[in-house]
Specification:
about 160 residues; 6 helices; single chain; mainly alpha
């Protein structure tokens, strides 16, 4: 049984993803402005590269969330299969969100500790927010990958169709 907190509609998942991206971006822009922008000295190349490593690791993990998708029972009626498919996808979206927020949080910590002002936000938070948008927004890519595994045992989840409506 899918936990109730994952019960949602495709519209709710889209709204959740958009809200998370907007809130994160607005917070980071406000932080950037509060810290004076890029008036501080730019970090050395090795520090910029180090700031991007957590973003790359988060991308690697977030792209593998769908691989843990359980297949649906083909004996279940179609409407229940579709409801469960959307609920499972909602759970994956929350997991991807948590994974993608890790480099954002690390970047914020570095911003306050390092002597580079808001440069870490420019270097790492911008790609981290782009990753967050890509991973949490329901796309044909993400829904198709999940649907293939949901339907592995012969079920017809209709996940891609559910998000086309």
């Amino acid at each position: 049984m899918i936990p109730a907190e994952y019960d949602s509609s495709p519209k709710e998942i889209r709204s959740f993803a958009a809200l998370q991206v907007v809130i994160t971006a607005v917070f980071l822009i406000a932080l950037f402005l509060i810290l004076g922008g890029v008036s501080a000295p730019r970090p050395p190349w090795w520090a910029m590269l180090a700031l991007l490593v957590p973003v790359a690791i988060a991308a690697w993990f977030a792209e593998r969330v769908w691989t843990r998708t359980p297949s649906l029972d083909p004996e279940t009626d179609e409407e229940e299969q579709r409801r469960r498919a959307v609920a499972i996808f909602a759970g994956q979206t929350v997991r991807r969100l948590a994974i993608c927020q890790v480099p954002v949080i690390l970047t914020i910590l570095v911003t306050f500790v390092a002597p580079w002002g808001a440069w870490p936000l420019v270097v790492a938070a911008v790609p981290a927010v782009a990753l967050l948008a890509w991973e949490t927004t329901p796309t044909l890519h993400s829904t198709s990958l999940t649907e293939v595994l949901l339907d592995a045992d012969g079920a017809q989840s209709g996940l891609v169709e559910a998000f086309k409506r």
